[in-house]
Amino acid sequence: MQSREVRRGGSLDSHAAMSYQPPYSPSLFMKRERRASGASVVAIDNKIEQAMDLVKNHLMYAVREEVEILKEQIKELAEKNNQLERENSLLKNLASPEQLEKFQSRLPLDNQTMAGSAEQHSQYGAGSAV
């Protein structure tokens, strides 16, 4: 029995040797019947595949829903943009040259940046990307 005892702090402790539990299950090292093991692996694989399909379907549904919401927002923003462009054009046509000049003088010095983004907008068009 002394060969199974564990040395602890220089002294032999037979109680520690008797209560020692390995960090793994001894059943891991036992041979299992191949048919049962193969069937359980297939069952586990099937459950994993079902779970992955469920997740995929849920994500696809969520993405489709979000796409529909974004399409609607794009449509509303494009309509609002067209309305504002028409209003802007009308106001420019109704304004006198003096009023336009006075308005231009009140704009911040950042006119060139705004004009650049307006050029980009007209270059790419106001159509929907979706």
From TrEMBL:
Compositionally biased intervals (Polar residues): 110-130
Annotated CDD domains: ZIP_TSC22D3 (cd21940)
Name of the protein in question: TSC22 domain family protein 3
Origin species: Denticeps clupeoides
Pfam families reported for this sequence: TSC22
Principal cellular location given in the protein's record: cytoplasm
Sorted UniProt keywords: Coiled coil, Cytoplasm, Nucleus, Phosphoprotein
Region (Disordered): 1-26, 106-130
Coiled-coil residues: 60-94
Residue stretches of biased makeup (Basic and acidic residues): 1-10
Localisation: Cytoplasm; Nucleus
Superkingdom of the source species: Eukaryota
GO cellular component: cytoplasm; nucleus
PANTHER family: TSC22, TSC22 DOMAIN FAMILY PROTEIN 3
UniProt key word Cytoplasm: yes
InterPro entries, sorted: TSC22/Bun, TSC22/BUN_CS
Keyword Coiled coil annotated: yes
Family note: Belongs to the TSC-22/Dip/Bun family.
One GO BP annotation of this record: regulation of transcription by RNA polymerase II
